[in-house]
Amino acid sequence: MQAISLFPVGALDPIEDLADRAILAIRQLLEAGHPLVVAYSGGKDSSIVAALALHAAVLHRAAGGNPLVVVTTGDTLVESPEVTEHYRAELSRMRAFGKRNGIKVQTAIVQPVLAATFQIKVLSGRALPSFPGTHGDCSTDLKILPQRAFRRGLFRSLSQQGHAEPVTLLGTRYAESARRNVNMRQRGESATRPARNQDGDLVLSPVCHWQDDDIWEGLALYGSSVRPGYSDFEDMRRLYAHAVGTSCAVVADAILYGGSGSRRQGKCGARLGCHVCQMAEDKSLANMVEYDERYAYAAGLQRLNRFIRNTRFDWGRRHWVGRTIRGGFIKVQPDTYHPTMVRELVRYMLQLDYDEQCRAERAGERPKFELLPLDMLVAVDALQSLNGLARPFAAWADWRDIRTRGIRYDIPDVPPVAQTAVPQARFLHVGEEWDDTAAAAEWTGLRDPYLESFTADSACGPEIQLTASGRAIWSLPTDQQFSVDVEAALLISEFELDRLLETHDAGVAPGQVVYGYRWYAQYGCLTLSHGQRAEHDEVARRTAYKDRLGLTLEYDVGALRERALPFEALQPAGQAAWQQVATPQHSLF
């Protein structure tokens, strides 16, 4: 098959020749019935791949074919706002291009599941941000797994519709870096023949042999209407340039890479990393804020990033109360964030959201970001109650204070805390099981004697089920993933908020800090994953016990350490249970 082009053979310059070779390879896929899936990030490489794919689809349509192009990108929900705005606009242009040219163009923005987001993992006390020297699972949770799940569902749907196997088009190039070159060769990536990736999917890398200059020339070719293009790529060039503090995208690209690929802004490979990224000191957003007043709105995001980075080794901001019982003891040592630190972060995010909404209203535009939308706010509030990190409905109280009482929570500019070794572990006796010394311990998990007695003779009461261990708990709704019912959350914000705030302001008795979680659960606002009912019952029992011991909320770390025992003071059974932490810890957390 000869290359198909809008230009006569012999009149091609080198970039046109490269483009036509790529289009030929892509057209062969379309002629074989394969739908195209473009992995799009908004950067230069994926942008030229999208342009080539859409051009090939136009030519295939003109020849009587019926091409399908699906363009998918990922939103980590903590993206640089400029990146989010950019790829949304470009995806819209792709859809418009498809409509103008009579080709099917579908776009999808893939987001992580709620429980895997930065906000829920960190603010619920389940994890720390991914710091250098630790297991950086953020890229996997926020990018790789969501895209993998989306592709599985998409491919299954296309198969059911009778399509051939889709082929994913990548913007990977051998010239990007030595490491990328080796990895691509191991995967057998090709510009002409689809290869199978580690997930078993067919992938084609149509620009894998292109150089940087080829990419920029190709974008100029498709952005200047010389060939049918979906975009002029001016916004992309602006982001490239301003991320380095220059006015030229090509110069910025050279500054960043210098031919070695060693100066990427983010460790995950993103040119403009997530605004909360700690794995690499991504200066792109800071450069933009300094370079042009149009980015001033993002200064608060940079302050939040610096605050998290500078307090990494402040052990007083860590939660010292362990979760695991061994030999009747729990470990007392810094782990995830202390309840007071978590409360600070929630307040800072709510303040940033409010300030941005006010700015956007004055400017007559949509807010550039929202760190804690309604579903996340409810999830954070519920899970903080479950884990004893905040009083019931504390997030709503902070929301009220900021929006109606004029209280501000501005992010402080704190100096970096010097790196030190993690303090030596101590051990606190709690008994063989959480709550085994509590009166009526069967009511301390996902049960509520008042609610159940009040609704005993009606159909409104919670349904009870038994766990595998024989505990009776509420039979809460389950699905594949933890989620918040957005409609129920809206009803709460409109009709229940005053009552929740009254409950927060009145306070709860010791052992009842989990009341907020139970309230959301019985309201029908939360759906748990299949394994979470028994797990959350156990967490609720543990939290209630800690709450009675004064080990939730604003507990004093120094007082806790005084109550705990050093390893040497443990009985032989306790020492045997905790032998692995008998030596000083040097983890960087």
TrEMBL record:
Supply the source organism for this entry. Answer: Cupriavidus laharis
At the top level, the lineage of the source is Bacteria
Note the Gene3D superfamilies from the entry. HUPs (3.40.50.620)
InterPro entries referenced in this protein's UniProt entry, alphabetically: Rossmann-like_a/b/a_fold, Sulfate_adenylyltrnsfr_sub2
Instruction: State what protein this is by name.
Output: Phosphoadenosine phosphosulfate sulfotransferase
